[in-house]
Amino acid sequence: MTAQSLFEKVWQRHVVVPETDDTPAILYIDLHLTHEVTSPQAFDVLRARKLPVRRLDRTLATMDHSTPTDTAQIFGGLPIKLESAARQVRQLEVNCAEFGVNLIGLQDSRRGIVHIIGPEQGATQPGKTIVCGDSHTSTHGAFGALAFGIGTTEVGYVLATQCLLQRKPKTLEIVVNGRLPAGVSAKDVVLAVIGRIGVNGGTGHVIEFRGSAIAAMSMDERMTVCNMSIEAGARAGMIAPDATTHEYLKGRPFAPQGADWDKAVADWNTLRSDAGAVYDKSAAFDAGTLEPMITFGTNPGMVTTISGNVPERPGDAVFAKSLAYMGLTAGERMAEKPVQVVFIGSCTNARISDLEAAAAILRGRKVARGVRALIVPGSQQIKLEAEQRGLAKVFTDAGAEWRESGCSMCLGMNGDLVDAGQYCVSTSNRNFEGRQGIGARTLLASPASAAAAAVRGCVTDPREFLG
Amino acid sequence: MDPITVIRSRTVVMPSTNIDTDQIIPARFLTTTVREGLGVSLFADWRYDQAGQPKPDFVLNQPAARGCQVLVAGRNIGCGSSREHAPWALLDFGIRVVISTEIADIFRSNSLKNGLLPVVVDEATHEWLLANPGAEVEVDLPACALRLAEGREVKFPIEAFSRYCLMNGIDELGYLLSQMAAIERYERTREGA
Description:
The structure holds 2 protein chains of 2 kinds. By secondary structure, chain A is α/β, with parallel strands linked by helices. Chain A contains 16 helices and 19 strands. In chain A, the strands form 5 sheets. Chain A has a 5-stranded parallel β-sheet. Chain A has a 5-stranded parallel β-sheet with strand order 17-16-15-18-19, covered by helices on one side. In chain A, strands 11-10-9-12 form a 4-stranded parallel β-sheet. In chain A, helix 2 packs across helix 6, helix 7 (186-197) runs parallel beside helix 9 and helix 13 (352-362) packs across helix 15 (391-398). Chain A is globular, with a radius of gyration of 21 Å. Chain A starts with 5 loop residues before the first helix and ends in an 11-residue tail after the last helix. Chain B is 32% helix and 17% strand. The N and C termini of chain B lie far apart (38 Å). The longest helix of chain B is centred in the last third of the chain and has 12 residues, at 180-191. Chain B has helices spanning 21-24, 44-47, 85-93, 105-112, 123-131, 160-168, 173-178, 180-191; strands spanning 6-14, 70-73, 97-100, 117-120, 136-140, 145-147, 153-155. By secondary structure, chain B is α/β, with parallel strands linked by helices. Chain B has a single domain (6-191), classed as Aconitase, domain 4 (Alpha-Beta Barrel). At the A-B interface, helix 2, helix 4 and helix 6 of A face helix 4, helix 6, helix 7 and helix 8 of B.
């Protein structure tokens, strides 16, 4: 048998009808996650065609994008301030009740960002196909799942048939070998990858991340890496499951139990690329040479080392426009650039280890005067754990705002916004113009770099705080 | 969805590379629960000033853009968010074809499902289009051909089934539902039921 890559193995398992010249493959979807923003129009299609949700047991809904992070609006009986957001949240409740979809609702203790709670609940598992009407669905690939974002029309198709029509994508192998230096995180790895291959380097491809540096990562770190695959243009990023994956999943609510667990692990152990598997493209990175990274422009590929300078590209009008938006000049040093906002959160970096990394720097220190630091845990479970372990107190003692979970300031749909012209060091995934608010200037970085910026009030190499 | 055959229009040109879907339709307009009415918010942050007035220098606000159905964009348009509101907004504004050298995966998929035709062309053709804003072009879906001035014709690739659906004005759901027996068979085999 020909050597297969991890992607090919998972793909093959889910082909209901193979592709032909005339028709794409029909691909079976094991898990459909859905949320309030990209689902209402899909439920309307079901209604119009008098179709039920075909597999309620494979469908899980929650609300995260437009939900407030203010405790009083979630638990205190205050209405959701943003009327259009309140309507959208209510619409999801109505749709889930009408169609019988399992909804992790606004006050549910399991609620959180959809890409954080899928893994947290153990619904995300190796070898599954997972879709959601959200581009950061690539996050779930950290478990060896084939997971990708879809549009609302496709949300409707999956609700109605549990299937999608798909052409088989190409594969891109990203090998990261070696050991990450102290102070360099998974976020820095993926920013370095995007900086090299570009925001379109993965278009049409599924990325498989491999190599000793990837194998050494925790699940939290692997999720950060796969999360940003889409920022390189790849709909999906995957990492082969191993003992770290099994350890993470064991005992979680949706994970297989008892004899089923052993059977599942035996199966998951086959989910790795065969020796000699062929990829359409490859790129290799030496972890030992990587440094903390920060973006300077208006897409995640516009990135440099935190100790570096804004590059110079004379004659590039698009580059110049981007720098003008950012209020930066070519050749300028990134370090010491004053910042007004720090956001620690999002499906990229709001897991417990991200909060630990931030707390390690904020412990016993204060957020600099004139800086607003917003810390938004990725889920209510993470919030609870952070409170029980004293991390939340570290943040509030430092003068940071500690919020209820959600997407929050990553995209500002819920009213958590950065003002025009302000610089925000953000642990999120996109530094597009206006992403965090009209005229907001986003500098993407790791949780440690964000915490360092909060303390110093300017772009800061987090290694300055290493003991 | 109306069937697409041949679209003739002048072009409107946005040469920026990596135009992401957050630009096409900013997140604050995503709290809608319907598909309609997003055209007014298309490119809102580039199109309007702080007072909500149209910026005269923005290409879509210029008189020449009126009635244009073909948008020529810089490389890698549609990157970022999976929001289908992006093609909805473009269509509601009146755009029916997007041309670039590269079109991001999810945006392309969403466009095909809504009757917004994504056309990928070679560098030379792209450069000509960028250099000739307002050019009359003909996009011929049955022939998979883009016709430029002086009878120049460029073939473009398009996935066969999507093309079939677009030409007939149907969505893919009918086909998927027609394959239910195969889907049920697959489920029985895999789930051992």
